[in-house]
Design a protein that fits this description.
Alpha-Beta Plaits; four-stranded antiparallel beta sheet; single chain; alpha+beta; 10 strands
Length: 390
């Protein structure tokens, strides 16, 4: 079976109940597919209607009544709130690979009032409760997915057409008290979580769900060398200064052993002034290589702006005290010093390979948004790479 593009829509209720991480983990680990992109949407009434009109399909193996139930659900629960006019949050995930549509649909599962296990996402997270007379009392599908390759193409083209107007970093989708001052902060789920298909990206999102914050922006990021250099630029001078004492002490020890003479304090300090910046630049290059795939000296300068070879997920979290709440769950930079239950203690291994990055202030979050552009419409680009112009 040739490479395909499949989608999964995480419903507003699943997002509200912080089930996103668990859903993502199952999809990655059980399909083995490439997570090609993800994007947040606040669907307009027009997008919802156009999508809902495609749900009842002869290509869907589910019962016609279930399809009609799904259509009614989409019209009611993905449309803007009729009382407030506020749009609802939806996340759309894109998966790419051989036989992707079937693999995704198998993990998502079908809907039934008599499910018996927890094999699929819908077994675990959806609800279809009916009276004895067959009337539906409560229905929540948890996620939405296409039943066939043709249906996936048709529906993805719809979402791609609206991806600029209805997607990106969402505005005015969350209600706050008049006295609240919500913040926005950036999280990067780092490349060490994507070495092979595993549940870590979803598990990290699960940890962040403890903050009670809202995801309002998301994309798959392949950080270019130039982006990594700019993003971690403030760290460079810190490393050049911080490493002076350590490298000078090490150099003193090696030189004294090699040449058999003593090095005084002033000469040791001079060694630090020379070697500290060199060591700092080397460590900076390691960070750039880890995040993008290449240090600046390893590729032509003309290639510095091209997408890198390493994958991240960029997420924008919103809420009161967002910066501090995220950093508290993340833990300190050094995983060995992170408290139990923090992300870096659970998933980090070194100061550099430490699972995730989070902005340390609102101002830095704004600076970082400008570099990695979490609202950028890579979603439409991925869809058009497969299906052509939409």
């Amino acid at each position: 079976m040739s490479s395909q593009l499949a989608y999964v829509i995480v419903t507003p209720y699943s997002l509200y109940k912080s089930r996103t991480g668990g859903i993502l983990s199952r999809l990655i680990t059980r399909t083995g597919l490439d997570l090609a992109d993800l994007r947040m949407f606040a669907p307009s009434a027009e997008l919802v209607k156009e999508y809902a009109d495609t749900i009842v399909s002869a290509h869907d193996t589910q019962d016609r009544k279930i399809q009609e139930l799904l259509k009614d659900y989409v019209l009611e629960h993905l449309s803007p709130d009729p009382k407030t006019g506020r749009r609802r949050r939806v996340m759309v995930l894109l998966f790419r690979g051989d036989d992707a549509v079937r693999k995704v649909r198998n993990v998502v599962g079908n809907l039934s009032p008599s499910r018996r296990g927890g094999e699929t996402i819908r077994d675990t997270y959806s609800d279809l409760i009916m009276d004895d007379d067959g009337k539906v009392r409560y229905f929540e599908p948890a996620v939405l997915a296409a039943p066939s390759e043709a249906e996936a193409e048709k529906k993805l083209k719809i979402w791609a057409r609206y991806s600029e107007t209805d997607g990106g970093i969402l505005e005015n989708v969350n209600a706050y008290a008049a006295t609240d001052s919500p913040e926005r902060t950036l999280v990067l789920i780092k490349p060490d979580n994507f070495k092979f298909p595993n549940g870590r990206p979803g598990n990290v999102i699960d940890f962040f769900s403890r903050t009670g914050l809202y995801i309002v922006g998301a994309k798959v990021l392949r950080m270019s060398t130039s982006q990594a250099m700019e993003f971690y630029g403030p760290v460079r001078e810190f490393l050049r200064a911080k490493l002076k004492d350590g490298v000078s002490a090490k150099a003193k020890e090696i030189l004294e052993k090699e040449f058999g003479f003593k090095i005084g304090a002033d000469d040791q300090k001079a060694l630090g002034e020379i070697l500290g910046p060199i060591q700092g630049d080397s460590q900076f290059d390691n960070i750039v290589r880890f995040m993008s795939g290449h240090a600046p000296g390893e590729i032509p300068e003309a290639d510095w702006t091209k997408p890198g070879t390493q994958k991240c997920i960029a997420l924008v979290y919103e809420g009161v005290g967002a910066v501090n709440k995220i950093r508290e769950v993340l833990g300190p930079t050094d995983p060995s010093k992170a408290p139990p239950g923090s992300i870096r203690r659970e998933f980090g291994s070194t100061i550099m390979v430490n699972a995730a990055h989070a902005s340390d202030s609102v101002d830095n979050a704004k600076r970082e948004f400008g570099i990695v552009k979490p609202g950028e419409n890579t979603f439409k680009q991925v869809v058009e790479e497969v299906f052509g112009k939409v």
